[in-house]
Design brief:
The protein is of the alpha/beta class. It has 10 helices and 10 strands. Helix 2 links the parallel strand 1 and strand 2. Helix 3 crosses helix 7 and helix 4 packs across helix 5.
């Protein structure tokens, strides 16, 4: 990240604090920056390509701005083209954009399966079958024994390109930009950011979703499906269930302004 980007992202400030958006001040991203945050893709390469084309058209209206894409995780599982989605993202952002890729719980499960077959049954139940198929690995029966899962693990490992491995290894747990914190699932209320655990970043629901307290930033997240973007004073949820609804949602942030793009 360049020095200019560090300044634009607000990384030169003292950091993310409980007082960052206190007192009713409108949350903002730094001047000169436009952020496009993209919700859970889940193997829908068709929707991702369509949304990126829409984003590119939108960005053309402001050539003077620095543009960043923030992907909130869950690129794999459920939809038919998990391998294609990772291939597209690993190739880098569109011309004129920077990009940050966050880790979702589904990427965590895929990564864990490559090292530990015991997570296989759980992963297969919530989307891993579709990911295996996208890499040309026949999904096993739900009751497959450990020996069969070991064969599947080795087949997937052999078919996973090095570029995909590096992409998965480089995924970030969160990123803070101005008065916004971007994370896959959410954060645990009342816990300093430095003390948060990865499980909460990737899996939390009720305690985070039900919280009305100041979280120290406006948290932009996916993970929990809603029919439309959910905007509250302390968080913005943008997982609109793309794999089933055909609606992949993008939150656009510039200064104190917010708007949405969607397929």
């Amino acid at each position: 990240m360049t020095r200019r980007e560090r300044v634009l992202f607000g990384l030169g400030r003292r950091g993310w604090t409980k007082d960052s958006v206190a007192g009713g001040a409108a949350a903002a991203v730094p001047r000169g920056l436009r952020v496009y945050a993209v919700g859970d893709v889940h193997g829908r390469l068709d929707l991702l390509d369509r949304l990126l084309a829409t984003v590119a058209d939108d960005a053309a209206s402001a050539p003077e701005l620095v543009k960043y894409l923030v992907f909130l995780g869950d690129y794999v599982d459920r939809g038919p083209e998990s391998a294609g989605v990772i291939d597209r993202l690993a190739a880098g952002p569109p011309p004129g954009f920077g990009a940050v890729h966050l880790k979702g719980n589904h990427e965590q499960a895929l990564i864990q399966f490559l090292d530990d077959v015991s997570v296989g049954p759980g992963w297969l139940k919530f989307g891993g079958r579709e990911t295996l198929a996208s890499y040309g690995v026949p999904p096993p029966p739900a009751t497959a024994p450990r020996e069969v899962l070991g064969v599947i693990q080795r087949q997937l490992s052999a078919r996973l390109p090095d570029t995909h491995r590096r992409f998965l290894a480089d995924l970030r747990p969160y990123v803070a930009i101005g008065d916004y914190l971007f994370v896959h699932a959410g954060i645990r209320p009342g816990v300093p950011l430095a003390d948060q655990g990865e499980r909460d970043f990737l899996w939390i629901r009720k305690d985070f979703l039900d919280s009305d307290e100041d979280l120290g930033a406006v948290v932009v997240h996916g993970h929990t499906i809603r029919e439309a973007p959910e905007v509250r004073h302390n968080r913005i949820g943008i997982d609109t269930g793309a794999y089933a609804s055909n609606r992949l949602t993008c939150l656009v942030l510039e200064g104190t302004e917010r708007r949405f793009l969607s397929t």
